[in-house]
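Dear colleagues,

For the upcoming journal club I promised to circulate an example of a predicted protein-ligand complex. I picked one with tricarbonodiimidic diamide because it came up in last month's discussion. The inputs are reproduced below in full, followed by the predicted structure.
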Amino acid sequence: MTVSVPAAPYAFELEPEATALVIIDMQRDFLEPGGFGSMLGNDVSLLTRTIAPLQTVLATARATGMLVIHTREGHRPDLADAPPAKLSRGHLSCGIGDPGPFGRILVRGEHGHGIIDELAPADGEPVLDKPGKGAFYATDLELLLHNAGIQKLIVTGVTTEVCVHTTVREANDRGFECLVLSDCVGSYFPEFHEVGLKMIAAQGGIFGWVTDSPTLLEQLEAGAAPVASTTTLS
Ligand code: TIU
């Protein structure tokens, strides 16, 4: 079955069995009020608005039998996999590895590093721990996708211009085609979110495609390939 999803810059064709849903870094420290993100002065509601639509996409992907992959940004407790340049960046008084509101910040195993309860991984769904912004860097994601026969990615999560963008660029260079869901990705900076999405679909889809979750779900649920059409980014 091929599903044709209206998108910018033109319809994205996907076969569910060759497509993975990638959910990037929906971690408490980025999303929850009082966590690391909000401690830095960010408005986390710009990120939490992605949770409800993402829950629906996740349920549909599971029902369709699609591969679902979750990622978490973070480090070993001894920080041996954290570049000193990352640790020192920003001159933060409370940064990576320091005791934060939800445990040590971005350290694996700590409460704040965990994925929010609303999007908890199901048994058998790969959860990828990544030390960088991109999900391919220093992880086995590419191997995992190749072994599962995956060629296309539906990309969701946070933040649009940081970990989502880096991952889409990495995926694109490796030959994967990415469909980014505009309502299922979010940024602390609305203008970066908007421009970040435009950058993906510009120049004929230089990095990938952009649509929203209702548009994807409508086509997945119809289970057919209607006439291809194009949407514009608002
Ligand atoms: N996951 C992710 O995007 N990590 C970040 O550090 N994002 C920021 O926007 N800071």
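Two points we might discuss: The chain has nine helices and ten strands. Residues 190-205 form the longest helix (16 residues).

See you all on Thursday,
B. R.
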